[in-house]
Automatic annotation (TrEMBL):
Basic and acidic residues: compositionally biased ranges: 490-504, 555-575, 708-717
Ranges of residues in domain BCS1 N-terminal: 51-252
Catalysis: reaction(s): ATP + H2O = ADP + phosphate + H(+)
A single GO cellular-component term on record: mitochondrial inner membrane
Segments for region (Disordered): 352-391, 483-504, 555-687, 708-730
Major localization listed first in the record, in broad terms: mitochondrion
Compartments where located: Mitochondrion inner membrane
The protein's name in its UniProt record: Mitochondrial chaperone BCS1
Length: 744
């Protein structure tokens, strides 16, 4: 065994175990040669020792992991933290504050401790995180960067021991054994905390403490969650997307009576006694509000303010988003907490504009503005001719089931918003689903003045220009502060500020009146007016001066928008007509073919009945269908429906049942305010002499209308005769009249 090592390249190398080791550990020969030639150490002699050490080390590793698993299973309590759950954010926020975290030698530095899931989805939008302390002067230059986004440090992968409530705990951060490249960073880690002992109380206390701290941080904020799809499986979930400082109710410009009414209604609903009241009577404990009106009139703002006022989280889903399929919505609603505000935006969206009653459906109507999915929903039909949304898309009955099906959570405040009340199905807004309607309108003179005041009136926290003559120079102001005895100086400054505030308020008030008199009422939405004022947010005089110019530009832009929309509508109508014509042509050709086949086989049979006759009639006109206008087609359809209705009636010789499709709907409802969208768009029911309409006269339901322009008048009660097609006057309608409130 006394072999000599020869340097590589010097003759024939001997076959030694070291050479083999070299294969396993590259560079080992070099080290062995070096030790042999310079120190005279033959590593061959140490190989058994090295092997023994490696074996012991491997055995120790295996044994320690086995023992630790054993201990964890039988002697320890462990809590695993899901990285896609909000508890991750809570725990990491807590961990970052602990000394074991701050003292770690290897750590992860974050500017945001929330699960990376949320960043990926929404970005970091918490207001705290947004504030990086950058201040900008009037010219737009960065003047100071005093506050910096704080860094948070959390321990890196591995086990970290710490003491909590005199107990030894272990914080473990590990990489999972299996990793998918699609996972976001936070999903690629596993977090757990363990403690010795079989009772996990200390872990629960820790998590509770972490949760309390987390919630306290958001106490004065409105937490906004949005329905989204997460992970690779695109599972629907509520993602926290923002924590906004709660919007004071006073900042939403709305009739005070309406605000008061809304607050009282929600307060009463949230009262635990009300919950018991509902439970005792077996009435589902739910309350729904419908906010409707043109865009930019404050519907979302009011919803947010309401959530902030009652310190509830707000969960938002837009029904026009791709997330809003029936399945997704159902799982989102099942996940809702008990006490929260749910905001369903754009409920006039596709699929929901169609009534559940097939006789009322109008699948050929062109989609509404911006209603991108409408066409998709309008087209598909079942063999029976009923319009059905494409698989997965939300249907009206699907939404109704979600809203008040047995699986639907009770105790929530549901707010639905729409720009087109007239498009909504009556079933969607019947009492029980919608208990109060609030109408929003464009700004009248009072509202315009209020918006002006809201923008320019000095508020707590605003920087007022200093009132002392010396204050133009900051150096002099500082000197003055030094020289004047604090008490006197402070008093003077305070009084001066008050005086100045009053002066500004008076001036803003005067300018607000002037501004409002220049803006024509009911022409612009509060959002449009606010947009203009924000352009001159530090200069009210300039805003008043520039208002006429803005009116010209705004009107021009509005006209251009209208022209564009009209063009779009026209194009869509043309496309729809073309499509319908094509379909009709195809259908007619197919029918002709079928008929000629039939004629060949049963020539003597002749025409067999009404339905055939009508078919033939339709088929005859089939060719001309292509050139037929939509109106003619609709008339034909109506005629056919009437005919089949008549036939049914004759056959059954029974009084019309409520469950069958009614022939004509007669509804004397609360008239929408003249000039409103509803006024223009609502179809007037036609009643013809030869028809015997099914008129269902319900017990008069009371509709409360508060016209806020006549603020001091008593609420008007209007009788409502409801022949609601397909539904009649439901017990819900009779029992709980909808309060209709005009907000503007
Ligand atoms: N009545 C109002 N009071 C105060 N601010 C308003 C009011 N209406 C609109 N605004 C302002 O206009 C902007 C848009 O308002 P908001 O989103 O609430 O309108 P909306 O009616 O929900 O619009 P949309 O129908 O398009 O969703 C917000 O910045 C809001 O502050």
């Amino acid at each position: 065994m006394n072999e000599t090592l020869i340097p590589p390249g010097a003759g024939e190398p001997p076959l030694s175990p070291i050479a083999m080791l070299d294969y396993l550990f590259p560079g080992f020969t070099l080290l062995a040669n070096f030790l042999q030639s310079h120190l005279g150490i033959n590593l061959n002699l140490y190989i058994p020792v090295l092997l023994s050490i490696s074996f012991i080390a491997a055995a120790w590793r295996y044994l320690s992991s086995y023992l630790s698993d054993l201990m964890e299973s039988y002697l320890m309590s462990v809590v695993d933290i899901r990285t896609d759950d909000e508890i991750y954010n809570m725990l990491m926020g807590w961990v970052a504050q602990q000394t074991f975290s701050q003292g770690a030698r290897r750590f992860v530095a974050n500017t945001n401790l929330n699960s990376r899931m949320y960043w990926w989805m929404w970005g970091s939008n918490d207001e705290d995180d947004e504030d990086d302390g950058t201040e900008i002067d009037e010219t737009g230059a960065v003047v100071s960067k005093k506050k910096k986004k704080a860094l948070a440090y959390t321990p890196t992968f591995g086990s970290h021991w710490f003491i909590y409530k005199r107990r030894l705990l272990i914080f473990k951060r590990q990489q999972p054994a299996t990793q998918s490249p699609f996972y976001t960073t936070s999903e690629r880690e596993e977090i757990s905390i363990s403690c010795f002992g079989r009772n996990p109380w200390v872990l629960k206390e820790l998590l509770n403490e972490a949760r309390q701290i987390y919630l306290k941080r958001d106490e004065a904020k409105t937490l906004i969650y949005r329905g989204a799809l997460k992970g690779t499986g695109l599972e629907p979930t509520w993602q926290r997307c923002m924590a906004r400082t709660s919007r004071p109710f006073s900042t939403v410009i709305l009739n005070e009576d309406v605000k008061q009414k809304l607050i009282e209604d929600v307060t009463d609903y949230l009262n635990p006694a009300t919950r018991r009241w509902y439970a005792n009577r077996g009435i589902p404990y739910r309350r729904g509000y419908l906010l409707w009106g043109p865009p930019g009139t404050g519907k979302s703002s009011l919803s947010l303010a309401l959530a902030g006022f009652f310190k509830m989280r707000i969960y938002i889903v837009s029904l026009s988003s791709m997330t809003a399929t029936e399945e997704n919505l159902a799982s989102l609603f099942a996940e809702l907490p008990r006490r929260c505000v749910v905001l369903l935006e754009d409920i006039d969206t596709a699929g929901l504009t169609h009534t559940r009653d097939p006789s009322q459906s109008d699948s050929s109507s062109p989609p509404a503005d911006g209603d991108t999915t409408a066409a998709v929903v309008a087209d598909p039909k079942t063999p029976g001719g009923k319009p059905v949304p494409p698989p997965g898309r939300l249907s009206l009955s699907g939404l109704l089931n979600i809203l008040d099906g047995v699986a639907s959570q009770e105790g929530r405040v549901l707010i639905m918003t729409t720009n087109h009340l007239e498009k909504l199905d009556k079933a969607l807004i019947r009492p029980g689903r919608v208990d109060m309607q609030v109408k929003f309108d464009k700004a009248d003179q009072g509202m315009t003045a209020a918006i002006f005041r809201a923008i320019y009136a000095p508020l707590e926290g605003d920087d007022l220009p200093s009132v002392t003559p010396t204050a133009n120079s900051p150096a002099l102001a500082a000197l003055e502060k030094k020289l004047i005895p604090l008490s006197d100086g402070e008093q003077e400054r305070k009084e001066g500020k008050e005086r100045q505030k009053k002066e500004i308020l008076d001036r803003v008030d005067k300018l607000a009146g002037e501004f409002a008199s220049k803006v024509p009422p009911m022409e612009f939405s509060p959002a449009e007016i606010q947009g203009f004022l924000l352009k001159n947010k530090r200069n009210p005089e300039k805003a008043v001066e520039g208002v006429e110019e803005w009116l010209v530009v705004a009107r021009k832009e509005q006209k251009e928008r209208e022209v564009e929309q009209a063009k779009k509508k026209e194009e869509e109508a043309k496309k729809a007509a073309k499509k319908a014509a094509k379909k009709a042509k195809k259908k007619a050709a197919a029918k002709k073919k079928r008929k000629s086949k039939k004629d060949d086989t049963t020539e003597s049979d002749g025409e067999s009945g009404d339905s055939d006759a009508s078919e033939a009639e339709e088929s005859d006109g089939g060719d001309s269908d292509a050139s037929e206008s939509e109106e003619e087609k609709a008339k034909k359809k109506e005629k056919k429906t009437r005919k089949s209705g008549k036939k049914d009636k004759e056959k059954k010789a029974k009084p019309a049942a409520l469950t069958t499709a009614p022939v004509v709907e007669v509804r004397v409802d609360t008239p929408p305010p003249s000039g409103s969208e509803a006024d223009k768009g609502a179809p007037v029911p036609e009643l013809k002499l030869d028809e015997k309409p099914v008129v269902v006269v319900a017990a008069p339901a009371k509709t409360m209308t508060i016209d806020t322009k006549k603020a001091n008048e008593e609420p008007v009660e209007k009788a409502q005769v409801s022949g609601d097609s397909g539904y009649g006057a439901t017990p819900a309608e009779v029992a709980a009249p909808v309060a209709q409130v005009e907000a503007a």
